[in-house]
């Protein structure tokens, strides 16, 4: 039996848990978990099934890479993360896009069932920086200066960058990319933002492209689609998440009205083979 206390000025919340990775309670919209190092404050993604795989969500203030081929649902995952952040957890967020304008982003979000997305943008609970905002200066330092002004003026909890692939076009060589990615990640943490960085993958699963960004971020989530005779099958794989005990099997997911659902109760399979699945090594046939 573990005993935790959470202090907030004059408020003391006492939480009990029987397992060191079992959620022991929530406080002000956050879930708390017991680990060998103490209490872990996590930010729910708002995606059914994914939060169960993550044991509650993403560690507060982490920067997580979301990778996949075009059309796998990466941007939808990012929108859902921000949308549920406001509607379910009262956590305002920022959506940075290098590829779309604000109108297209709103329409895309509403087309998958995030009906209040435009309203939340108008209310300032979701702030959009679209491709015109991000590419207007043509200079990374000038663009970051404008972002930092808004980060300082308003209080946000969540951020989505779509995409890191376009973000890296600001820089000429790998060393410069590494330096500025580290700086950007540090800035996000400095302002208390728990962030998803969308990353385009060229390789087709089960091949994966491993770049600097995989090592410089706190977590790696892959969204995967494989063709079938009748369409595509979709999967999610949480490959890495620092400070968390996670399920690293691959699980089926679907995109429908209301966004993404991960079927974490289905038989998962491992990249090394294992239980469940339909392929020769325990997974589906890719």
Which keywords apply here?
single chain; 286 residues; alpha/beta; Rossmann fold; 2 domains; 9-stranded mixed beta sheet; 4-stranded antiparallel beta sheet; 32% strand; disordered N terminus; disordered C terminus
How would you describe what is shown here?
- This protein is α/β, with parallel strands linked by helices and 286 residues long.
- It has two domains: 1-43, no CATH class; 44-262, P-loop containing nucleotide triphosphate hydrolases (Rossmann fold).
- The chain has helices spanning 50-53, 74-89, 102-111, 117-122, 131-135, 140-153, 164-167, 174-190, 212-216; strands at 2-8, 11-17, 23-27, 30-35, 38-43, 58-59, 63-68, 93-97, 126-129, 158-162, 194-200, 219-228, 231-241, 250-256, 259-262.
- The strands form three sheets. It has a nine-stranded mixed β-sheet with strand order 9-8-10-11-7-12-13-14-15. A four-stranded antiparallel β-sheet has the order 3-4-5-6, with no helix packed on it.
- Strand 4 (30-35) and strand 5 form a beta hairpin.
- Residues 1-24, 33-38 and 272-286 have low confidence and may be disordered.
């Amino acid at each position: 039996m573990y005993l935790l206390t959470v202090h907030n000025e004059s408020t003391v919340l006492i939480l009990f848990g029987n397992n060191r990775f079992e959620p022991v309670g929530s406080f002000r919209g956050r879930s708390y978990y017991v680990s060998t190092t103490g209490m872990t404050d996590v930010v729910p993604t708002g995606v059914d099934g994914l939060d169960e795989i993550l044991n509650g969500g993403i560690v507060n203030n982490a920067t997580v890479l979301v990778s996949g081929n075009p059309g796998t649902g990466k941007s939808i995952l990012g929108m859902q993360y921000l949308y549920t952040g406001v509607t379910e957890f009262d956590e305002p967020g920022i959506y940075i896009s290098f590829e779309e304008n604000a109108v297209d982003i709103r329409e895309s979000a509403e087309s998958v069932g995030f009906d209040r997305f435009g309203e939340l943008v108008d209310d300032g609970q979701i702030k959009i920086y679209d491709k015109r905002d991000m590419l207007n200066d043509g200079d990374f330092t000038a663009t970051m200066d404008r972002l930092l002004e808004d980060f300082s003026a308003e209080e946000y909890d969540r951020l989505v960058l779509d995409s890191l692939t376009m973000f890296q076009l600001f820089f000429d060589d790998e060393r410069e990319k590494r330096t500025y990615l580290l700086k950007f990640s540090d800035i996000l943490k400095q302002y208390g933002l728990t962030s998803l960085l969308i990353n385009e993958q060229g390789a087709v699963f089960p091949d994966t492209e491993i770049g600097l960004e995989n090592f410089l971020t706190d977590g790696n989530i892959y969204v995967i689609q494989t063709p079938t005779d009748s369409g595509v099958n979709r999967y999610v794989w949480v490959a890495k998440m620092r400070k968390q005990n996670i399920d690293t099997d691959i699980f089926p997911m679907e995109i429908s009205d209301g966004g993404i659902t991960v079927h974490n109760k289905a038989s998962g399979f491992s990249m090394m083979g294992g239980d469940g699945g339909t392929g020769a090594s325990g997974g589906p046939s890719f």
